Amino acid sequence: MPKKKLGIDVLTAARQRIAWSFDTFEKIYVSFSGGKDSTVMLHLVADEAKKRGRKIGILFIDLEGQYKLTIDHVQYCYDLYADISIPFWVCLPIHLRNAVSVFETHWICWDRSKVEAWIREPAPMSICDENYFPFFHAGMEFEEFVPEFGNWFAEGKSCACFVGIRTDESLNRYRTIASKTKETYEGKMFTTKIIENLYNIYPIYDWKVEDLWIYHAKNSRPHNMLYDLMYKAGLTLSQMRICQPYGDDQRRGLWLFHLIEPETWTRVVARVNGANSGALYIQETGNINGYRKVSKPEGHTWRSFAELLLHSMPPKTREHYENKIAVFRMWWSKRGYSDFPGIPDEADYAMEAKRKVPSWRRIVKSLLRNDYWCKGLSFTQHKSEAYGKYLKLMQERKQTWKLD
User: Fold this and answer.
1) 85: part of which helix (H) or strand (E)?
2) Does pTM top 0.85 for this prediction?
3) Domains with residue ranges and CATH for the chain
């Protein structure tokens, strides 16, 4: 879908989208992370709320493993907008991805059984009571919590959740806006229906990263000072990310903890399996992390190397990857790669990179990369409530397929 110029600047367009949302929806809340995008969005939404004398919800899901600078910034913003907001600072045991270990592929922030190992104490205003939200259960997935919160906050009324994503950050974010199959509100592409009466609103989707800092330069609004230190550490504007540090994308920034907040880093290393090795090696290419070109050990094929890697994993993790590989092989067997000889050991490198052809080398790269959801093999992440059923189904399927 080609981009269409609106004839106005991005700030004016964002303010118009926000004003329309206030006109349209009975309830409003902001999904706030303390990052550069959601901070600018919060300032803009708060401006409109003040103008109209309305209160907005501010949801911050505290993932424990975050910079103190980010927490300080979040607290400052909550204090700044205390008169027009209903605060929800969530410090609950939520299930998160750990991409730096095959032995602990997930972890639970604010795990009540590991209080002594917490990276820091929750903020005084935090929601720590597991019974506060009627829908919550310990170990709930982040992706599960977010829509449930929206449904709870809406109370059956029409509700807008402001989300600070920009299309130039990734193809997936572009698709979120440009999708022709999603349900929108009144055909406006900057909206996405989540559940009945609840819509995500993306008011700054067309901003570039430079626009965010131009906004701050022209307006005396607080920003997360972490970005200043990231800039001093040599990161480009597009490389600056804040989130829980162990995710598949976020792990590339683990090394920054050493430089920016060494006191936090000592707690991070002790808290989650693999953090230290992740920080040491995540920037490396080759076999250490499966990035770019990889090589197989002498005397191995790519298939035998994949099998070697699988057998080095804990049983639960190995079963997870074997299920994914079985589906991958079966899918391609129906598209010209029959059971014999099956998918090739390797194929044209450029075609592999574009995911146009299967190969065992592609499988090896996913295993080395600790690509838990096998996105490199064209899979998407499972919804948590369906994953248990998926495991049972895969046991039955593998027996039927009889893959060697």
Assistant:
1) strand 85-90
2) no
3) 10-209 (3.40.50), 302-401 (no CATH)
